[in-house]
Amino acid sequence: MNDSHYCPHTPEEIQEMLSAIGVASVEELFAPIPAELRATTFNIPPGMSEFETFSRMQEIAGENSQGMTHFIGGGFYDHIIPSVVDHLANRSEFYTAYTPYQPECSQGTLQALFEYQTAICRLTGLDVSNASLYDGGTACAEAAMMALRVTGRNKIVLDCCVSPFSRQVLKTYLFNLDVEIIEIAPLNGLLDRSALAAVLDDSVAAVLIQNPNFFGSIEDFSALAEQVHGVGALLIGSVYPISLGILKSPGEIGIDIAVGDGQSLGNPLSFGGPSFGFIAAKKTFIRNMPGRIVGETVDRNGTRGYVLTLQAREQHIKRHKATSNICSNQGLCALRGLIFLSSVGKEGLADLAGLNRDKAEYAKAALSEISGVTLLQAAVTFNEFTLVLPKNAAAVVAGLLELGIAAGVPLGQYYAGLENCLVVTVTEKRTKKEIDLFAKELEVALCN
Amino acid sequence: MSMYFTKEHEWVKVAGTTGTVGISDHAAHELGDITFVELPKIGAVVKQFGELGSIESVKAASDIFSPLSGTVIKVNDALEIAPEVVNESAEDAAWMAQIEITDEAELKNLMTQEQYNDYLKTL
Amino acid sequence: MQLIYEQSTPGRRGVKLPKTDVPAASALPESLLRKERAGLAEVSELDLVRHFTNLSRRNFSVDTNFYPLGSCTMKYNAKVLENAAALFAPFHPMTALLPGGEEFCQGTLGMLYDLGQLLADITGMDEVTTQPLAGAHGEMTGIMLVAAYHAAKGNKAKKKYVVVPDSSHGTNPASAAIAGYEIITVPTAPYGDMDLELFKKAMSDEVAAVMMTCPNTLGLFNPHIKEISDIAHSFDALMYYDGANLNAIMGKVKPGDIGFDVIHVNLHKTFGTPHGGGGPGSGPVGVKKALIPFLPQPRIVMDSAGKLLLETANPGTIGRTANFFGNFGVMAKAYAYIIMLGREGLIQVSEQAVLNANYIKEKLKGHYDLPYDMTCMHEVVFSASKQLEHGVHAIDIAKFLIDRGYHPPTVYFPMIVKEAIMIEPTETESKATMDAFIEVMIEAAQTAESNPQALHDAPLTMPISRLDETKAAREQNVCCAW
């Protein structure tokens, strides 16, 4: 009878409840569903025990190849996760709560999100942050929609050095709206500034750039920010949070809205999610921000506390006029991000960023020394860089996968004409030994 | 100066061809503590009962509709910094915009103070 | 409680980083570097652990308190699901997108494919995309599929509107607006469902879709649903099913069988994955055959040999709604939940969710106004209108419940019920828990009459009393100054 141990009633209790309701059977409670609409099939397999379920999940995980050495990024990065992140975020008082609608019994979540917003503001050098978005791609789309609202214009200029995934998400979000999207093709792994200047005028709502970009290049966008502001448009920057340990912050650059994916901040790769998207902006744009925002206030006794604020922007009040449709966000992943940043700390994040760059520079030297291999960009890079191989990168990558090395992201499928290019990522987790082995295997692969 | 009301609880005070617009005490009370007033841009052309701006409290947001057609010539910037004035003085200090009226005949679509008071009793 | 930043001591660290085994790189040009370090916390590991452990104790949660938050399905989250999801932590999503990479990800791709098949059966749909990251994200994806469908038929310009009942979740109109549609809102009739006659008047060739929650946000199953979908289809409008309330109907009725063309499912509601203090959720979208050509990419397909592949170049696709394959970790939990409960278990889930809601409805209807007094499904909506006569609002009752250790039900939603109190007990709560809750709800109703001030003063047992939300909204202090 009791197929689910998560349904606790005994048959006697069910009888008592049915009598209280005044019906003879549970089935009677489904009487409002007209008989002719009832399901005629339900082909879910029979259930199993907890132990069998876990074994089955282990089997599934085992069907993926194990122990791959990652030199791939593309928006998700293989970084260290301090043990405290799992232990604290997995406290069930955090993970089995929901959106803190009732602040008196949700101060844990609310204060943590206020601390998260603070961390994001300090990291990006901007004034206001929300309590998280879904991921880096949707954050780009939300930022673009925010710029459309702020400026009242309907044109977005996209630097194609931005992740092709994020660009595709943005285009999908905007596809049925009356918005023109202009794409600027990359120039040697950098923003083509003259092509951008040619389209930049006072009809543009925003320009979207990424730093470091999909090729790994770091650029100085300070002058661009002035240029964009000169026509009354906003500069949106998608950034890699670990790099902000050392790189100029979006605020210092003059970026109006900074976005990014928070996976690298304490969230496992987990085949692509959950991670979280972050968004931060100058204070003047706060009413156009999407999603939940936590604000500080006081209670009746003057004690400091936190609440969800500016809710009149949101879908549950403003419905079709809301700044976004987002309701559930990625709160627990944002909490992981906060714990990660607080664990690594002020000096630690700079050290971690430096470590990434050291490893990547070592790999860059080792790999570009291979005969026939050159670097696409002269620009400086962070922990990703683009190699130009003497042959099609896709085939090389497929071969190295067989050896347990995920060698990088071949660019051919994303950029026509760059079929020989390979974006290589090197995080702090990669050892000299792994990098040396990769260089050796790449050399062999290129000789074949 | 005569004062007219809409069913959506906006008021307009007419002086010559200028109309000064705000929301009624009743509306301000219903909304609760006002936290934000979105004002129109000077020069904006508005239609009678068309959107003029919006107003927010902690748990509600509502549009402000223009009682008359016209062009916005002045806005009360002070409300952007001190939205609480709407709660303190909705029908006076918390005026929101002044418009240059284009069609006085539209006044016939509005209620007088007396009519509005009766209307409130029906709600 | 102090903020983590107020506990900082310069130079302190919470974790030791790996030692470098390579030479230091040459310095970056000054113009690319930040002037000051980001002002993150500087605390020891123990300080950090105490801080977040103590913060967690300032939360109510399903694991500590009954949490009958209507519309959110706060059921118990089985612990084995957490263990199962952790198995997939090391897998990089880019691996699958590399040339030939699918071969190395057959487990994870296979699980997503199987989950899609299971959800398709539960909902009566033909195919499911697992990409959407939450319920509202699924709604947006679903309405974009509708838009693509109409555009492909050459009707992009003609189709301008999406119809929603006034009882709908706010996300429905908000999602439809992002997808480019204007909204027509249809009022609820006295019988608790969208007014059929007004619905008929609202329909025209210009309507792209009708978005429904069924059972609706009043917890009622709409007996006219088939008629509504037939009318919608006669105008070539598609029927969208908001799956927020799927927990009521598993194995009983399939949205796909009763005329719905596209549906999203909230895995964090019906399929037992935790809500995370606001997320992550997961919002897979199921569609009928006619919409398959427009599904987001990459789409997981199975070849004749049973091997999973990624389709990335379908010309009809709406594109991509998220960077990778969706919230995989959440889907791993939902998949484990479904295979663990199985066919009979899922049916039992819906039966007992409905039983529990009706039990609470019967026990409380003498004490609270029940504006729609009929058999409900998985949730019941009361009104505090009787208590309002004594100056007591729904929010006061909510705060009283907090003092008694209960997370309050959803209040003030749906908006069409004055002083709404929306209770969703879920199937995982015992009769004893519900009986105790019912007692406290009755006590609240009695206190509203005898001592309304006591309700206005609540809560008194929490670390803080009621907060000044107006101050928060006016001052907009959303980041700790430094």
Offer a few descriptive terms.
heterotrimer, B: 123 residues, alpha+beta, OB fold (Dihydrolipoamide Acetyltransferase, E2P), seven-stranded antiparallel β-sheet, three-stranded antiparallel β-sheet, 4 helices, 10 strands, C: 482 residues, alpha/beta, Aspartate Aminotransferase, domain 2, 12 strands, 36% helix, globular
Would you kindly provide a written description of the structure presented here, covering whatever features stand out?
The complex is a heterotrimer of chains A (448), B (123) and C (482). Chain A is 37% helix and 14% strand. Chain A is α/β, with parallel strands linked by helices. Chain A has 3 domains: 11-55, no CATH class; 69-78 and 353-447, Aspartate Aminotransferase, domain 1 (Alpha-Beta Complex), CATH 3.90.1150.10; 83-340, 3-Layer(aba) Sandwich (Aspartate Aminotransferase, domain 2). Chain A has a 7-stranded mixed β-sheet with strand order 2-8-7-6-5-3-4, with helices on both faces. Chain A has a 4-stranded antiparallel β-sheet with strand order 11-12-15-14. The termini of chain A are far apart. In chain A, 62% of the residues are buried. The mean pLDDT of chain A is 97. Chain B is α+β, with helices and mostly antiparallel strands and 123 residues long. Chain B has one domain (2-106): OB fold (Dihydrolipoamide Acetyltransferase, E2P) (Beta Barrel), CATH 2.40.50. Chain B has helices spanning 25-31, 78-81, 85-88, 113-121; strands at residues 2-5, 10-15, 18-23, 34-38, 45-46, 51-57, 61-65, 70-75, 97-101, 111-112. In chain B, a hairpin with a 4-residue loop joins strand 1 and strand 2. With 482 residues, chain C is an alpha/beta fold. Helices cover 36% and strands 11% of the residues of chain C. Chain C is built from 15 helices and 12 strands. Chain C has a 7-stranded mixed β-sheet with strand order 1-7-6-5-4-2-3, sandwiched between helices. Chain C has a 3-stranded antiparallel β-sheet with strand order 10-12-11, covered by helices on one side. In chain C, strand 4, helix 8 (225-234) and strand 5 (238-243) form a beta-alpha-beta unit. In chain C, helix 2 packs antiparallel against helix 10 and helix 4 (106-123) runs parallel beside helix 10 (328-364). Chain C is globular and about 75 Å long. The mean pLDDT of chain C is 97.
